[in-house]
Design the sequence.
């Protein structure tokens, strides 16, 4: 190396680059002005010589500064343009490439300031791997947050996984490292290589990656999420205008990997292959939404997606990012909403993931009493760190904004709210006030919900929260957490506990069915029978029911009818609407073959009819959050195991009467009080033969009678099958009908009075006639007696004469 160039070398920093301990290699590498010329330095490990190739075709040999592969050259030009470098190796091989170190930073100080404050709601646009053009050059911009790392490199297929090749630049004090690597790299695998101050070097998957390898491989994949042609503008526009508290929401919860299995023996269908199959079934059944168990990348099939590694990557089990966009787009075109399960409560300990990311507890708490779930074996996010909050908030918005998700269902919210959730004394740390509330998590939940409301264009946020924490769906301005809906875990537990009892014993547990109405309007609830209720030895829904197989089906139909007519939105896990006889596991498909049995096909038709009624009758959804939508008729007939109640919409003619019989007893003329005089037509009976029942239904339209029952002036008498639910459409009489009926009643009353009078008059005439006859008889008797007197006197004289004659 010539002396002039030698003096320009910063040897300590060159050594840091060679030993991969430099956090700002751009200070040396790449082009740098040197007087009127430009100094270019390059490091290509194992290279024995290099040339600088200028855009005009001229080449200049670079001098070796270090035999490890460090080269430099001074060019008498102020601007070099898009030059290239050519490296030669001892084996005769060469590699010509564009220099990654000739590009300036992509991320701005404004970006890093917003990220540091936890308010960069599109952080995924600056962090991760992004295919882009920079200064006319196609390449990929890589960036990662690792503030405590000594050095970070991006490694992958494009640089032979050599961490010395693309060492990244630390951006001021942000903790973010970045580099732009030229080349057509889409689809290639990569990771970040981190080196700690103690010398430990290891690989991490990209937390913001748009793609991940299919397990068991663990690399991130360079993917684009732009360029998809969405066709759901009408759907999104309609969603923005809706108040889902006053809309029907019937959710089909599903695990994509076991909804259906390919016939060719492969493990999974692609998202594009799944779309028409899901649409066909969900449309046929009348559900309004599907809820997908987590589709974010996860390493362990048995976690069902609840132990996430790649929060920004749709799982490669079913395809790519664009494949998943296609799936959602097609469902939207078919009028079906898509809710995504999301897990902001915890993450797994896999070493290539978020745990101990930069050699410190970056995403989790350092203290295991704060940072670990002892039961789940997972780590808890540090919600007090702005960048961690930003990672999660931006992720929720990412699925809504980039994938057009219609809602986010947040898993395990209760575990976030309570510092002592699932822990014993000594296993948790109290908050600053000495309580067990996780104040940082509370603020995080409020923050993410506020942004979903602000930016989500009508998207829902739904909480799986199982405690009595107040105002989960309360207004953010009133101290609430701001969720749109909350899973009603109390109803679910009470309902299933009641249903498992033999009907003989149910009278002792009636309160478990009615208690939910005590708190039904304290939150905006969704009634759920989710995957959690049909796993881990809990049985399928059918086998939770008591009795013979016939009784099980009848119980389940009655139970589903009760659920669908109870206030609250609805969710049912796949397979339970066809009465699967086994609990769910992720390795098998839904048992569609059961539909060949009339009992299971009857259950499917029954659930389909329930969804049809639910969507068609406003009384079943319009006032879900108000007492105006519900009214008990009878909730105290505990010995009969019956319930009757009204669902209302504010219009009498839309009122529905629901009668449920959880006893295994038939009643043929069972009196039920009704809200008003009118006609009552049965629109659903779970004992209908088409659903697998015996046909003990009410076929005739029932006219109410002015006979008191259940504290009501009017009542009807119904036929009530054992273990059944009946739903009646209520039609009050019109004014004309009332007038006609009143006139009929008046006419009937007059006729009755007339008949009474005639009867009374008849009785009087008869009495008079009898009296006359009695008088006539009496007179005749007296007259006869009078006539007999002289005769008697003559007979007595003659006797005396004879006697005298004898004498």
Sequence:
């Amino acid at each position: 190396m010539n002396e002039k160039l030698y003096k320009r070398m910063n040897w300590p920093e060159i050594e840091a680059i060679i030993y991969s301990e430099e956090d700002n290699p751009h200070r040396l590498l790449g082009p740098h002005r040197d007087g009127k010329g430009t100094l270019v330095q390059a490091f290509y490990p194992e290279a024995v010589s290099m040339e600088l190739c200028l855009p005009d075709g001229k080449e200049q040999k670079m001098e070796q500064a270090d035999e490890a592969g460090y080269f430099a050259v001074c060019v008498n030009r102020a601007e070099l343009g898009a030059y290239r470098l050519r490296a030669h190796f001892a084996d005769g091989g060469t590699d010509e490439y564009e220099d990654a170190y000739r590009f300036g930073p992509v991320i701005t100080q404004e970006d890093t300031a917003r990220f540091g404050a936890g308010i960069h709601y599109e952080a995924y646009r600056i962090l991760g791997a992004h295919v882009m053009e920079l200064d006319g050059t196609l390449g990929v911009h890589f960036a990662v947050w690792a503030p405590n790392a000594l050095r970070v490199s991006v490694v992958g297929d494009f640089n032979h996984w050599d961490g010395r090749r693309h060492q990244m630049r630390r951006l001021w004090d942000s903790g973010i490292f970045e580099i732009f690597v030229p080349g057509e790299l889409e689809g290639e695998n990569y990771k970040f290589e981190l080196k700690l101050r103690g010398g430990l070097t290891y690989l991490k998957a990209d937390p913001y990656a748009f793609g991940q390898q299919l397990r068991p491989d663990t690399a991130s994949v360079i993917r684009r999420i732009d360029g998809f042609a969405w066709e759901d503008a009408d759907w999104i526009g309609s969603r923005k205008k809706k108040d889902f508290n006053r809309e029907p929401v019937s959710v089909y919860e599903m695990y994509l990997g076991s909804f259906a299995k390919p016939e060719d023996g492969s493990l999974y269908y692609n998202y594009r292959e799944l779309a028409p199959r899901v649409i066909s079934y969900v449309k046929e059944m009348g559900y309004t939404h599907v809820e997908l168990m987590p589709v974010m990348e996860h390493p362990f099939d048995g976690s069902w997606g609840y132990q996430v590694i790649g929060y920004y990557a749709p799982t490669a089990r079913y395809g790519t990012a664009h494949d998943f966009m296609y799936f959602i787009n097609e469902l939207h075109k078919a009028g079906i909403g898509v809710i995504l399960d999301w897990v902001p409560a915890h993450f797994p300990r896999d070493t290539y993931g978020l745990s101990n990311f930069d050699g410190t507890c970056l995403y989790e708490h350092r203290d295991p009493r704060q940072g670990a779930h002892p039961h789940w074996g997972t780590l808890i996010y540090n919600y007090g760190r702005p960048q961690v909050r930003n990672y999660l908030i931006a992720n929720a918005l990412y699925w809504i904004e980039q994938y057009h998700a219609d809602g986010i269902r947040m898993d395990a919210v209760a575990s976030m709210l309570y510092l002592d959730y699932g822990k014993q004394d000594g296993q948790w740390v109290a908050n600053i006030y000495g309580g067990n509330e996780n104040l940082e998590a509370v603020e995080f939940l409020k923050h993410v919900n506020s942004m979903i409301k602000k930016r989500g264009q009508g998207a829902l946020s739904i909480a799986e929260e199982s405690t009595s924490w107040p105002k989960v769906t309360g207004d953010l301005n009133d101290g609430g957490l701001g969720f749109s809906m909350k899973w009603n875990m109390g109803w679910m537990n009470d309902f299933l506990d009641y249903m498992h009892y033999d009907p003989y014993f149910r009278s002792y547990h009636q309160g478990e069915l009615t208690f939910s109405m005590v708190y039904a309007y304290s939150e905006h609830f969704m009634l759920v029978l989710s995957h959690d209720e049909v796993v881990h030895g809990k049985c399928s829904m059918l086998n939770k029911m008591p009795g013979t197989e016939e009784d099980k089906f009848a119980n389940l139909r009655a139970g589903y009818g009760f659920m669908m007519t109870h206030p609250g939105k609805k969710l049912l896990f796949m397979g339970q609407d066809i009465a699967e006889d086994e609990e769910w596991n992720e390795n098998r498909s839904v048992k569609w073959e059961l539909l060949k049995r009339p009992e299971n096909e009857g259950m499917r038709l029954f659930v389909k009819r329930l969804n049809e009624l639910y969507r068609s009758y406003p009384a079943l959804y319009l006032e879900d959050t108000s007492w105006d939508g519900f009214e008990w008729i009878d909730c105290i007939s505990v010995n009969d195991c019956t319930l009757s109640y009204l669902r209302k919409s504010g219009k009498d003619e839309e009122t529905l009467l629901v009668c449920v019989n959880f006893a295994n007893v038939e009643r043929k003329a069972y009196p039920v009080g009704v809200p008003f005089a009118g006609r009552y037509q049965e629109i659903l009976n779970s004992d209908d033969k088409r659903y697998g029942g015996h046909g003990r239904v009410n076929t005739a339209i029932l006219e109410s009678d002015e006979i008191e029952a259940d504290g009501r002036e009017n009542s009807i008498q119904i036929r009530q099958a054992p273990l059944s639910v009946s739903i009646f459409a209520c039609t009050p009489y019109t004014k004309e009908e009332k007038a006609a009926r009143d006139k009929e009643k008046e006419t009937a009353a007059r006729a009755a009075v007339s008949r009474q009078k005639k009867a009374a008059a008849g009785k009087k005439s008869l009495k008079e006639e009898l009296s006359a006859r009695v008088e006539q008889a009496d007179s005749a008797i007296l007259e006869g007696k009078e006539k007999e007197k002289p005769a008697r006197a003559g007979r007595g004289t003659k006797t005396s004469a004879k006697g005298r004659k004898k004498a």
The chain is about 30% helix and 25% strand. Residues 355 and 439 are 23 Å apart (CA to CA). Confidence is low (pLDDT under 50) at residues 796-807.
